[in-house]
Amino acid sequence: MGEVVHGVRVVSPFRARATVMARRFREIGLQILHNKAAVLGLVILVFFVVLAIAAPWIAPYGPLEAVPDALPLSRSSSSHPFGVNQLGYDIYSQVIWGTQTSLIVGIAAAIVASVIGTAVGLISGFVGGWLDEVIMRFNDVVLSIPWLVLMIIIAARIGNLDLWGIIFVIGFTGWSVTARVIRSQVLSVKERMFVERGRMIGSSNAHILIRHVFPNAFPLVFANTILTVAVSILSESVLAFLGLSVRNTSSWGRTIADAFRYNALTIGMAEWIIIPGLCLVFLVFGFYLFGYALDEILNPRLRRR
Amino acid sequence: MALLEVRDLVVEFKTRAGTVHAVDHASFELKEGEALGLAGESGCGKTTTALAMMRLLPSNGRIVTGSINLAGRDLVRASETSMQRVRWKKLSIIFQGAMNSLNPVQRIGRQIAEPILLHEATAKPEAIERAGKLLELVGISRDRINDYPHEFSGGMRQRVMIAMALACNPSLVIADEPVTALDVMIQAQILELLERLRRELGLSMILISHDLSVLAETCERVAIMYAGKIVETGPVVDVFSDPKHPYTQGLVAAFPDVRGPRVMPEAIPGDVPSLISPPAGCVFHPRCKFAFERCTKAEPALAEIGPGRRAACFLFPEVPEVSESEIPAETR
CA–CA separation, B150 vs A300, rounded Å? Predict the structure, then answer.
């Protein structure tokens, strides 16, 4: 690698950088493998991600496909392990397809909420003054309305939401907490000496905000995004439970709602409600575990030496 | 010719409690390649003087009058754009509290390269390359360019800060308390490094410290500040062996002598006066054991009292009073 000049191996800066980055990724990988919580979280997440990606091959039936060999509301059997719902859909397939909806909506909505919340929090905290006052008072108003109610009202008002619609409804109603958390972190970071130094060196405000303040708030942004993914997955399920989520696809929330409506417990189909419920709990749990462990690993100040 | 000439510098801060006269008619100069020490108690205007020279005063502070002449250019009257060209390239500063002046989540090399990228039209790889050279100059291996600040010790972080100050090859470096909060061994290393850099790069330096021993070791001349005023200047050896101003005498007496008898060093009684309403006459008179009537009425000017020595004290008959016109309107 590289030519030798005066006994020193000369490497192009690009290659040197690539080597450093590769080494860094290997280090992070090793650290994840040494953290039990991270491994457990990762296993759960990988399981669901594989399930979502491989749904077309794993699921015996399509998301909106009635089974030919059983009546609606049939109990579990060898061909339909979790039974058949009121429309004659295989519940096992429904749960697998529901993974896709939960993951896509959860992650995308969390990204939307985090991007908005982070931008608002950064600007509000960094600029300060009357702008901060206006933004935070507006935020207080939004926060004083129960968030779930706000989300439900908006979703119901728009009605007939498609996948992107549901992502934006959850994302646009979920950034307030992130904004507030990021703002508080920015308020603390901007008083640190290196921000002062940046000013003295002659950096512009934008440069200081992007280069110095944002990276120091990033671990919090990251942890918050992971938290928001978990909350967004739950939100989607709530909206689906109320019949406000995407209509032409299956969702864990809808499956649970159907099970409720048809008294799954009394007709001896407990798995109709338990299986999607457990999936929801585990997926959310996986995001929490992995998110916190990764924060510990990525944050240079929390990192063990 | 003097590289730097500061004349009658007056800096004020507007605060809720009133106007703080942080620097009051300070005058000093610095020859090319010389090291000047700026000594005094906390809150006597040392750092403010440094920030005023960089034109980096906080928003509530301003330079009221005076001139700061650096290589023929008056920095007080310079526009912000021309200041941008002077800062770092001609005049730079090693910040107080170096340990906390580094961004914990940015690599060292990138941070040293920052002033280069901001003040010179240099591509990033080249700036990083120069950051590596600077690291070696201050005695840190170039391999550590991709490390984070927490992987460095306090002394090494101070070296990094020095490298950062040297990034754009300035001719004058202001070192604001460069060894405070470091242990004695590391202090000696850092001072040795500053000394070597001064020799090798032909730097001029202003060293700010409350520690007289630090200044005695590194500087040729010192200026003693008290309550925003320079009360005495002169060659470092002369000032410390034969202090003229009563305040300097107190300051020197407050330092224990290693070879002398084991007695508690003498303290100067009283406190630094409020800079919002400084006492009339000589600012030091309430704490001065030699004070007489004239000291409470008139203010002594900083005047020549011997070869290369200046002091602002009426104990020396040649010292004149500050003329009315020089006193700013607010204190009249």
Answer: 8
